[in-house]
Amino acid sequence: MSEDTAEPDTERIPCLRGRGIALAPLEIGDAELIQRWRSDPVAAHETGVWPGSLYELRERVERHLDDNGRDDFLVLLPDGTPIGLIALHDQQLAEGTAEAYLMLAPGHRGRGHGVAALDALTDLAFGELPLERVEAFTHTDNAAAHSVLARAGFVPEGVRRSSCMHRGRRYDNAVFALLRPEWEKLDRARSWEL
Predict the structure, then answer these.
(1) How does DSSP classify residue 8?
(2) pTM score over 0.85
(3) Which of 36, 124, 131, 138 lies 20 to 30 A from 99 at CA?
(4) 3-state class of 179 per DSSP?
(5) Between the CA of residue 181 and those of 48, 97, 132, 185, 188, what are the distances in Å?
(6) pLDDT of the chain along its 194 residues, tens only?
């Protein structure tokens, strides 16, 4: 077991499935694990997240769990090992839009888990919720995230110039989106079929 993952302290009940992964609702007690993932220099840079204190993160997770405009999940391996965090947040049901967020533990990147998690999340967005558009933002130089988003069907739409500040430097963010008709055309099993 690597330091960036943890043995599940309680049995998680997955609510969504993907190829080789499952998604389970986030719990307040997951803050310490998320803190370790967010402290990884690559994750901190690519997500533009300042690690901050564990206390603050616990408070944030608790607020997120009370927010009806978001759904947060741990990404789990088949044995229940948590390997990442994925969220569908800023849900505007009247507008039919939301934003996807994904962060994987360092030892589990580049193995297809991100694409599988995004597939399960977009199945929730379009198969269970009345969404028409799911957006994602990442640094323009984050080639790994661009590849994951493209493999999950997201289309690059443009650049938000100088939209992120990290470690004293301004970064451009690439804008990706997946629309309901594009999701409907994807030739893959849906999470409820796995």
Answers:
(1) -
(2) yes
(3) 36
(4) strand
(5) 31, 14, 8, 6, 14
(6) 444 554 545 678 899 899 999 999 999 999 999 888 887 777 766 666 666 788 888 888 989 888 989 999 999 999 999 999 999 999 999 999 999 999 999 889 889 999 999 999 999 999 999 999 999 999 898 899 999 999 999 999 999 999 888 778 888 999 999 999 999 999 999 999 98
